[in-house]
Amino acid sequence: MGLHPTGTELFLLVAGVALLLAVGGDVVARRYRVPDVLWLVALGVVAGPVLGLVPASTVLLVAPAVGTAVLVIIVFDAGLDLEGKILRPLLASAVVFAVVTYVAGVVIVTVLADAFLFPGDLPLSLFFGAALGASSGAVAIPVANRMGLLPSLRGFVHLDAAIEDALAIVFAGILLLILTPSGTFSTGDLAVAITLPIPVGIAVGVVGGVVWLLTLGRWQDRPFAALATLGYVLLVYGVTKLLLGSGIVAALVVGIVIANAAGVRRLVRWVGASGIHPSVRTVQTEVAFLFRALFLLFMGCLVVLANPGWVAIAVIVGLSVGLLALRFAVARALSQVHRVDLDWASTLGGVGGRGLTSAVVLILPISVIPGAQGLFLPGVLLIVGTDLAMTAWVYAVSRRGGGPTAPGSGGDLAKVRPILEGLAREDGGPARGPGVFDVPDGAPGNAAPTPPNPA
Length: 455
Hints:
Radius of gyration: 22 Å
Structural class: mainly alpha
CATH architecture of the domain at 63-289 and 307-363 and 376-399: Up-down Bundle
Largest sheet: 2 strands, antiparallel
CATH class of the domain at 63-289 and 307-363 and 376-399: Mainly Alpha
Shape: globular
CATH topology of the domain at 63-289 and 307-363 and 376-399: Na+/H+ antiporter like fold
Order of helices and strands: HHHHHHHHHHHHHHHHHHEE
């Protein structure tokens, strides 16, 4: 009797291999900081276009939802690390850094894509720029957590990644509105698409965070609390999207509100002294890990194999390094006006790998723009290229050594300096480079410092 596996059996087989490969890739990533994106996308390419085990038509039904869910969970978890004492003095600088690097990245990628990758096809080039102009929180946030950064610098990376994620998705939505051949587009639609997402996302996120503190926050020691919180955050995302807001921003704000429950209590007296239980965050991290592994597998399955040509490869290699150099240049420029510490520039330049956000945005135009599936091969190559460049850059920063960060010279950094020094002492360990501290023996590499007791 021969073996005749069905499509379901083949999919589960490939998914099982993807999860095992993701776990192995995570071990490698923790030790050598090589993103596991590389292995999972490669498996998807083998399972999809090479062997035909996972058809692209099936992947397109589930990939956008899975990828978006991962982004929501990761951004929400990043918000939980942003306490007010770190957030307040760094928020404006993070917004400026994210907006400048994303806009400049979109322009550079679009111009080069229109000239060399998709000559004369401006819609494809614009979408390619919208997708690859943003660093990915799903890549940058875990790398920043594993580097043992000072809490302030780690929080800055979290904020920047979440803002760039939101900007990429909002800009892609605007492009879809303009390019969709439905004939119903109007100036009013464009105005709404530009002005509403961020403010509505912030408003819904604030309300959602307070509601969580009043309800689910009191049940964090109960069974299935993690799944309830996860479901709640996805619900907030869905409600925000129905109200034409940015669900990514809303998820970030919900996390920030929960992280600052003590401050919220001073404004809303019914809020109790509740917060996220560590076990809840552990479950959320594992659920995000599962979805992320599957999405990266799906991303590889959607690649259309072709010979990109030497010119395209040269452009992608140049962009892989150039996009990180752009981040470094912006950080250096902001340090001149005391918006970021000069010693942070090398780290901020390095944690700019592309990944999940880019892939989610690249999927959006497939049913709208002819030939949009051709975005995936150069997109995957650029994602892999930026991640390899990020790995080398971060390794060089970690190996550079040197004394502790230089004292700030004024502005927001002067206000936050005493807080940073206190948090650094809580983290423990000697300084081994600008803004980087070794994690104490026995502590996990991605563990956040224990916040001081508000009492």
